[in-house]
């Protein structure tokens, strides 16, 4: 019995490694197939609308309130050592480097990742994926690759919009509540912003988009056992994408930081 | 037509899921233009056998030859070429619910064969007509159709690419007796019109008698009897007798657990 914890540890390690392996193989197959014709352009456009356009309200609301609270919280903190003037820079740098991509990523994971897992999962349990194969259509090319491509292309655009809306939120609070001069606020926002701040956020967004679509498709593709299985796949897609986003966020930040 | 021409030939096909042997050495041959029905209880491996022939599942051992060509383990363009010979009617219909009925039927011609959409729509409407559906149905979505209509659409999709081999997975399950007979008639007509080879799996004896030239019975992963449909009542096999008369008492015991 003394070995029980070790047995458990071993079993969990093996299960984890199996998962990493099968996700990696899935991703490889999706990328390889995605680069081969035929390209399903209609599918890519449809997914871009779904991921980008229809996520705008959710991401926009998240961004504006984040920008607003950021200005307010920084003010309360910075006022203690008379550094209120730094608020525009703090707001814009926090948003572009960190909060824009992470929050947009998490919101899209909840919205789009879940929908992908549920749709592909239902297609799996109702044999629609098998039907695709019998119609000589590779499910990786038709279902998975368009979602991956659309997510990688769309999330950066979504994050740029989120950055703008977030800065607007900070601006509104700073100017109308904290009595900042509006032109000075905008000038400070732009003057201290570096290309790398925005660029690193956009790269993060592309990676997060890949992770969201990958987990949504992987979990859906491998779901089994009817409605319950699809439910479990949906949950797993959102949870795993969220964890991966936060993990990759750290390592990407470190990589940019080291430059 | 050369009656001796073997279209599909299986030798020693084995497939297990974990410790459970689902197919335990299946040998069967189907001549060109012949219609074979495989009967057997739920969970006896009928669906798995079809999926092994289709290449959706890969058997661990044995050979599956289509027109004399070994198909176990082929991939990519070879698989796509062989797949073009197949049409499949799935048990639940497996219609793509995001597409209109005509787009479902035209899916194979458009996506796999590159037929332009207007021409493919003509083909689709013609095939819908062949299964007794008016062109208006083409504009509906699968969810708007009754079960019997969905089966017909699925049949139209299965024959849209004029396959040489058609598989029917429990074509009459879940239909009322009249609609079941309508589907049986359509199957006979479509198979005859195309001159196709057919393999069906069913546990509906009325359907089996109507659509088959030959019957094979699968039990515990083995084919325990096969012969001409006319001989099935004189099989002198206690398993076959129990099954075709639907008796609870006999050598076949109810399987409580799913595979």
Q: Would you kindly provide a written description of the structure presented here, covering whatever features stand out?
A:
Chain A is an all-alpha fold and 259 residues long. Chain A has one domain. Chain A has nine helices and no strands. In chain A, helix 4 crosses helix 7 and helix 6 (139-176) packs across helix 8. The longest helix of chain A has 39 residues, at 87-125. Chain A starts with a helix and ends with a helix. Chain B is an alpha/beta fold and 259 residues long. Chain B has a single domain (27-245), classed as Rossmann fold, CATH 3.40.50. Helices cover 34% and strands 25% of the residues of chain B. In chain B, the strands form two sheets. In chain B, strands 6-7-8-3-9-10 form a six-stranded mixed β-sheet, with helices on both faces. Chain B has a four-stranded antiparallel β-sheet with strand order 2-1-4-5, with helices on one face. In chain B, strand 4 (61-66) and strand 5 form a beta hairpin. The longest helix of chain B has 18 residues, at 177-194. Classes of the chains: A mainly alpha (259), B alpha/beta (259). Chain B: Keywords: ATP-binding, Nucleotide-binding, Transport. Chain B: GO terms for molecular function: ATP binding; ATP hydrolysis activity. Chain B: This is ATP-binding cassette domain-containing protein. Chain B: Belongs to the ABC transporter superfamily. Chain B: Residues 8-245 form the ABC transporter domain.
What labels describe this entry?
heterodimer, A: 259 residues, 9 helices, 85% helix, globular, B: 259 residues, Rossmann fold, 6-stranded mixed sheet, 25% strand, AAA+_ATPase (chain B)
How would you state the average pLDDT of chain B, rounded? 87
Question: Unreliable stretches of chain A, pLDDT < 50, 5 or more residues?
Answer: none
Alpha-beta content class of chain B: alpha/beta
- Tell me how many strands of chain A there are: 0
Distance between the termini of chain B: 40 Å
Q: What radius of gyration of chain B results from the CA coordinates?
A: 18 Å
Largest sheet of chain A: none
Class from secondary-structure proportions of chain A: mainly alpha
Beta-strand portion of chain A reads under 5%
The average pLDDT value of chain A, as a whole number, equals: 92
Determine and state the CATH class of chain B. Alpha Beta
The two chains with the largest interface, and their residue counts, are: A-B, 14 and 24 residues
**What is the total number of structural domains of chain B?**
1
| Pattern of helices and strands of chain A | HHHHHHHHH
* Total domain count of chain A: 1
Keywords (chain B): ATP-binding, Nucleotide-binding, Transport
Organism (chain B): Vineibacter terrae
GO molecular function (chain B): ATP binding; ATP hydrolysis activity
Domain ABC transporter (chain B): 8-245
């Amino acid at each position: 019995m003394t070995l029980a914890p070790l047995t458990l540890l071993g079993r969990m390690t093996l299960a984890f490694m199996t998962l990493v392996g099968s996700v990696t193989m899935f991703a490889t197959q999706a990328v390889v197939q995605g680069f081969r014709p035929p390209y399903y352009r209609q599918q890519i456009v449809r997914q871009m609308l779904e991921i980008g356009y229809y996520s705008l309200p959710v991401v926009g609301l998240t961004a504006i309130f984040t920008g607003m609270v950021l200005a307010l919280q920084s003010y309360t903190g910075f006022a203690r050592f008379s550094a209120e003037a730094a608020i525009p820079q703090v707001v814009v740098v926090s948003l572009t480097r960190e909060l824009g991509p992470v929050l947009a990523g998490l919101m899209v994971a909840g919205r789009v990742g879940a929908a992908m897992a549920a749709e592909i999962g239902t297609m799996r349990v109702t044999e629609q994926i098998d039907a695709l194969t019998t119609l000589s259509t590779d499910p990786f090319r038709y279902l998975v690759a368009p979602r991956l491509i659309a997510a990688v292309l769309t999330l950066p655009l979504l994050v740029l919009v989120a950055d703008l809306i977030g800065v607007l939120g900070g601006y509104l609070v700073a100017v109308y509540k904290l009595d900042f001069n509006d032109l000075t606020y905008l000038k400070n926002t732009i003057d201290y912003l570096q290309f790398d701040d925005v660029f690193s956020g956009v790269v993060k967004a592309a990676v997060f988009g890949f992770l969201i679509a990958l987990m949504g498709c992987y979990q859906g593709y491998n779901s089994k056992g009817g409605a319950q299985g699809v439910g479990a796949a949906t949950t797993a897609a959102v949870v795993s994408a969220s964890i991966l986003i936060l993990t990759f966020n750290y390592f990407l930040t470190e990589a940019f930081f080291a430059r | 037509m050369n009656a001796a021409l073997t279209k599909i030939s299986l030798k020693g096909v084995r497939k297990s899921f974990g410790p459970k042997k689902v197919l335990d050495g299946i040998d069967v041959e189907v001549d060109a233009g012949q219609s074979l029905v495989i009967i057997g209880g739920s969970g006896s491996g009928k669906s798995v056998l079809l999926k092994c022939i289709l290449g959706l599942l890969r058997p661990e051992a044995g050979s599956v030859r289509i027109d004399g060509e070994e198909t176990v383990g082929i991939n990519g363009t070879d698989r796509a070429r062989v797949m073009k010979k197949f049409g499949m009617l799935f048990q639940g219909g497996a219609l793509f619910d995001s597409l209109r009925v005509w787009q479902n039927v035209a899916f194979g011609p458009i996506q796999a064969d590159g037929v332009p959409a207007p021409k493919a729509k003509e083909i689709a409407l013609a095939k819908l007509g062949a299964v007794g559906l008016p062109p208006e149905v083409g504009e509906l979505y699968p969810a708007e159709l009754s079960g019997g209509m969905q089966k017909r659409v699925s049949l139209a999709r299965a024959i849209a690419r004029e396959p040489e081999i058609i598989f029917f997975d429990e074509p009459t399950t879940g239909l009322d007796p009249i609609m079941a007979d309508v589907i049986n008639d359509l199957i006979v007509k479509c198979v005859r019109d195309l001159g196709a080879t057919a393999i069906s799996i069913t546990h509906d004896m009325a359907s089996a008698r109507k659509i088959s030239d030959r019957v094979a019975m699968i039990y515990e992963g083995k084919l325990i009897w096969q012969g001409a449909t006319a001989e099935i009542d004189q099989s002198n096999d206690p398993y076959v007798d129990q099954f075709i008369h639907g008796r609870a008492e006999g050598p076949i015991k109810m399987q409580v657990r799913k595979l």
